[in-house]
Amino acid sequence: MEQVGTLAYSVDDAYTYDATDPSNDKYEALNTEKEISDELYKLCLMENFVDYGIVYSNNHTVGKISNGTNALFGEKLYTDLSGMITRDRTHDGWYTGYGDNFERIYYVKRIHENALFCISFYTSELDNVFENPDNLDDMEIRLTDSRYKMIYSSKKDELGSALPEDLLKNIDGAYFKAVADSENLVSVNRSSGSWFVICSIPTNIILKEAASMKIYIIFAAVVAAILAVGAGSVFVRRIADPIGTVTSGLSAEIREDGFEGVLGNRYFRDKSKNIVNKSSEKDKRALVIMEIDNFPDIINKIDRNTANKQLEKMVLIIDQIFRDVDCKGRLGENTFAVLTKPSSAADDDFRTEVDRNCELVCKMFRESLSTNTMGTLKTSATVGAAIYPISGNDYQEIFDGALTALEDAKKQYRGSYKIKL
Length: 421
What we know:
Layout: H1 2-6, H2 26-44, E1 51-56, E2 61-64, H3 67-73, H4 77-82, E3 92-96, E4 104-112, E5 115-122, E6 140-144, E7 150-153, H5 165-171, E8 176-180, E9 184-190, E10 196-202, H6 203-207, H7 215-230, H8 232-240, H9 245-257, H10 265-278, E11 285-292, H11 295-301, H12 304-321, E12 325-332, E13 335-340, H13 347-365, E14 367-370, E15 376-379, E16 381-388, H14 395-412, E17 417-420
Parallel strand pairs: 16-17
Antiparallel strand pairs: 1-2, 1-5, 3-4, 4-5, 6-7, 6-10, 8-9, 9-10, 11-13, 11-16, 12-13, 14-15
Pfam families: GGDEF
Transmembrane segments: 215-236
Keywords: Membrane, Transmembrane, Transmembrane helix
């Protein structure tokens, strides 16, 4: 995560621009902030971040700082984020439990005296980080803060509570240790952020294997496996290494697709499926599929360059309309999609929001192009959408619903939209 945060320094003006400077020219400031924001949005797609942006001392933000974060912190946004910086040498820090909410993890780094950089993500993302070896299904994995309060646990009901006393008594005060007693085999590893990865497995589970192997061999094998899972480096590599599996796959998809920040078909569907299927019913999502109409005619009756400009136009429209999205992708030559989140918790408000955005796509894309031989050619985009969990209970139902809505809209007339409800 810390390495991903440093990528923000590759953005021009990100670490020099100061939104609090009263001498800023208003027009130049708007352009500078837009350029910074656009680049940060591209970077934050490398992981499923809630926030990836800059907060200034006047609470002005640039980049992806979610509505939820603004509502949670309110007027204390900059002040309380600044309080999360605990390391003087590197001017950064990790934090969780803000407002007694342990479902979000924050990483904050000072950029200059009036600005800081904030990344946050949900602790549920750690399900993809901590994976038990196949032969240790009974092992429990926990991530705690410096006070041994649980940030993550493979036992979901423990989130935010204190580490069980039967485990704490063996590892309290230790940075790197493995201990076995009559109840548990426990290991602890301290991360660079003063948090602890703690793994445990009941001793009786291990002893069941003693019939076929000597005890000391079993213990040695289990200790080695636990230490491998618990190593802090695993946490860093799997959650945020910019050259790791997730981001390298994403980079390949972006290069293959040709539009930076737009995922290819396979990666978009995998990522959006993972997000929807992990969502609860209160975590509403909308899948919106947009298709450029008459695309072969644009190529054949005008030229390929004009067709490419229509693709670029669609990407620009998507960026303008859908700002707070989980991911966006290209499903086919002339078909794009976004998985978007609501700005309001109310079902009716979200349906209205999706309806408005679909209508905007249709309106903004309409254009008349001049052809070489047949006068003008009208271009349009047809849109289909589905809402989770209103339109379906899992990703496949949502995806199929959006496709059905798209086909229904095309049957109605091209350049229209439908929402599957």
